Amino acid sequence: AQKITQTQPGMFVQEKEAVTLDCTYDTSDQSYGLFWYKQPSSGEMIFLIYQGSYDEQNATEGRYSLNFQKARKSANLVISASQLGDSAMYFCAMRVYNTDKLIFGTGTRLQVFP
Amino acid sequence: DADVTQTPRNRITKTGKRIMLECSQTKGHDRMYWYRQDPGLGLRLIYYSFDVKDINKGEISDGYSVSRQAQAKFSLSLESAIPNQTALYFCATSPTGGVTDTQYFGPGTRLTVL
């Protein structure tokens, strides 16, 4: 079965520090994509970063990077230099080859304090 | 202007009423999706459409129907709303179904069924 697991319901981080949000996935497919989305309190879903299963390098987008460990089936999001505006829910999602849906985890609520 | 728009943004209705949620996109994407989000459950796929003539059920389609009126428009209907359909509803689009394709989300519609 295909599944995304986010084991951290909530995380706290001080402003300007780095934080890692955990995501593990389960699939028997060889071709898949992993995504992270941010959902602020206003509710919209904002795409942050993508990692393909065949990508050899970890994805980076500005302050966001994805620590992809294929053998461990983990795709952790690292946010460097946290800002107050990073406070939000963060969802990890997976899309496998030849399917058309995103499978979401249950999310991690990140709170950044001054 | 936003690439993916949803109307209404908020709606309160009564049990048994018919309600339609609308989604429009200017991204030129062929694929459109409807998800619902419940607290603690992440997002779950209701319906998706590859193009105007191709509509498919997702994992939780019971009690919902959809209409793809044009490439840019995808509507979700609740024929007879019930309280457990109270949720946040998202429309999303993607250019194709490949694992690398990001799904881009609208701002969401918060629906309350009394």
Can you give keywords for this protein?
heterodimer; A: 114 residues; mainly beta; 6-stranded mixed beta sheet; 4-stranded antiparallel beta sheet; 0% helix; globular; B: 114 residues
Topology of chain B as a string of helices (H) and strands (E): EEEEEEEEEEE
Q: What structural category do the secondary elements of chain B indicate?
A: mainly beta
Number of strands of chain B: 11
Instruction: Bin the strand percentage of chain A.
Output: over 45%
Shape of chain B: globular
Biggest chain-to-chain interface with counts: A-B, 29 and 28 residues
The number of strands of chain A is: 12
What is the first-to-last residue Cα distance of chain B?
A: 33 Å
Uncertain stretches of chain B: none
Largest sheet of chain B: 7 strands, mixed
Q: Oligomeric state of the chains?
A: heterodimer
Number of helices of chain B: 0
Strand % of chain B is over 45%
Question: Quick one: biggest sheet of chain A?
Answer: 6 strands, mixed
